[in-house]
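Marked as duplicate of an earlier ticket. Keeping the data here for the record.
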Amino acid sequence: MKTFAVATSLFLGAISIAQGPPGVGTLTGEKGMGWDANGRYMVLEPRGPLAKIANETMLREETDRFNAFSKQAHADVQELPETAGRHYYRSKPQVSLLFPNLISLYSTIETFRGGAHPNQEFATTNFGMVAKKPTRLRLQHLFKPGVDAVQTVSPLVIEQLRATGRAAYVHDQQMKELTPEQAESFVITRSGLTFLFGPDVVGPHAAGSFQIKVPFTAMKDQIDPDGPLRPLFPRPRKKKATAPKVAPKNDRRNPVPAARPRGNVLPQRQTPNSKVPDRKSAPRVPSSGSRG
């Protein structure tokens, strides 16, 4: 994976879009300001309109996160100079699924602004075709009309969180279902949806992060196979019916040749009134040497 830098000034500066091969773009803050910020975002090869809006969205959203951290870190250092050099921002983009008409990406973001430990969160972005238009996908786009997407996935995710034994907020009933915001923290895989939760979301910080996989088979009656997920559910091609072979007709334009007789004997040409003489009844012709 190739990496190239995009220059930016302090948290409110303009950012230029890098042109080049697919890889990872980088945002870097000014050095010597008391914090270390390094933001990364995926740069896809611009094949089609879906990759184009994906690139624009990922750059814009990573820039917003980068600037928000830099602005807060700047204020913290101004208020508490002794914290200078401790603040940092890191983001790592990854591809979950990449099709011409279906793209799923996420970034793992780690920040530190003082305290006992760094903070970690996930930022997910999904793109697909809705009504033949490239669209930033929400969970509801993946389900059939009339199906409540959040109510469908929530019990499936809660059940698997409880099975991990680490999701304390689920075990003590603080978290009984997903909020709409939590339900949008998902990526698409070939076999299902994966929901991402950072520390402190479904359990204490020490419990770490969670990746909960929900297979499509668990939602087969609710998922829309003709929607944005259609690239994952290809329809079998129908075989073309072949017409039965018809024997050629015996007409004047396409006469069927008569069967040739066996052997070297040529058939006699007969008229309707001609008769073939019988050997017994045929008169005997005397030879020239016989007596009269």
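See parent ticket for discussion. The radius of gyration is 40 Å.
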